[in-house]
DNA sequence: GTCTATATAGCGATAGAC
DNA sequence: GTCTATCGCTATATAGAC
C-alpha cells in the first residue's frame, strides 16, 4: 500500500460506527474521535460527510468482488459456501455490507441502494448458475438473507430476525437444504 | 372509536416516515407536517419525541397480538401461513414492525430491541409447536426473515436482500419447503 | 497533514396567544 | 386542542494557525 496515512483508519472507524450504532451516531466528530484524529484532520481526507459515504460504497464494491472470486474457487458446494458466508460476522465484507446498509436505511444516501442491489444480484447469479434449479437457488438466496439479518441484527446491533444459528443448528440446516437439493436432483 | 382526534393520524404518519425514510427523517416537524398538524399540535399529544417512539412500540405489541390470534385460527398449514405473511407489505403489522425496526437501527431507542425480540420469539414458538421439527422450524423462521427483509427492503424502502418473490416464485418456494417437510415426516 | 475556532443551519422542546 | 415564536443544543462545514 502507498502511504494511505489515516485514510483507511478513518474509513474503518466509519464502518464500525455505522454498523454498531447506525448512521445517526456516525457524525464527523464521532468518526474522527474513533479514528484518533480531529474533525479537521478527517475533513482533510474526506471533504464532506458525503465523501465518506461514497468511499464506504466504493470499498463495498471492491471487497465484494474479492470475496466472489474466493468463493467460486472453493471446492465445497455452493449451498454450503453461501450459507456459511451468510453468518460470518466481522469480516471485511460483512462490515462493508452492514455499513452501506446503515447508510441506505438512513434515507440520506440514494447511492447506497444501487450498490447493494448490484452485490446481491451477483450472489443470485452465482447460485442460479451453480445449482441449475432456479427455485432452489432463490430459496437458498432468501435463506441466506434470513441468516445474514439474523446474524447481523441480533448482536449488539439492530433489528428484528431470529437469533443466529449455533454451529450445530447451522450444520443441521445446511444438511436439510442439501437433503432437499438431492430430492429435487439439483447440483450442489 | 372514541374521539382519538389527531393522535392516531400522527402515529400513522410517524410510522410511514420511519419505514420509508428512516428515523433521521422522522423529525417532529416532518411528522407534524405529514399528519397535517403543527409542531405544537403534535407536542400536545406526544410531549416528546420519545413518547412518539413509545407509542409506536406499544402499537406493535398490540397489532402483533391481534395477528397471532388470527394466524392460529387459520386452517392452512403453519408453513404456508407464516411464509405468506412474511411477504405481506403495507398491512398494519408490517408497518408497525418496520417502524420499530427503524427505531432500533437508529441506536437511540433501547426500548426497541426487547419489543422486537418478543414479537419474533412468538413466531418461533408458534412454528416449533406447529411443526414438531425444531430444525425445520428454524429453517422456516429464517426463510421468513429472508422473505420479510426482501419484501420490506426492495420497495421504496431500505437495504439489501433479494427482490421479493413473485406470486409464482413464492408458491414454488412454499411447495419446495413442504416437500422437505414431507420428506422429514414433520407436521405440515 | 493536522489542529482550533467559528459561522451557519436544523432539530427538539418551551411559552404563551388564540 | 392547535397555533406561532423562540431558546438551546448539536452537527456540518469553513477559515486559518501551526
From TrEMBL, chains A, B:
DNA-binding region: 27-46
InterPro entries the record matches: Homeodomain-like_sf, HTH-type_TetR-like_transc_reg, HTH_TetR
Protein's UniProt keywords contain Transcription regulation: yes
A GO molecular-function annotation: DNA-binding transcription factor activity
Pfam families in the cross-refs: TetR_N
Keywords: DNA-binding, Transcription, Transcription regulation
Domain HTH tetR-type residue range list: 4-64
PANTHER family: HTH-TYPE TRANSCRIPTIONAL REGULATOR BETI, HTH-TYPE TRANSCRIPTIONAL REGULATOR RUTR
Name recorded for this polypeptide: TetR family transcriptional regulator
High-level lineage: Bacteria, Bacillati, Actinomycetota, Actinomycetes, Micrococcales
